[in-house]
Amino acid sequence: MEKVNLKKVRSQAKVVGTLVTVAGAMLMTLYKGPIVEMLWSKHSSAHQGYGNSTPTSTDKDWLKGSILLIFACLAWAAFFVLQVHLTLKQTILERESKKAKPF
Question: What angle do CA 69, 24, 49 make, to 5 degrees?
Answer without folding.
Answer: 55
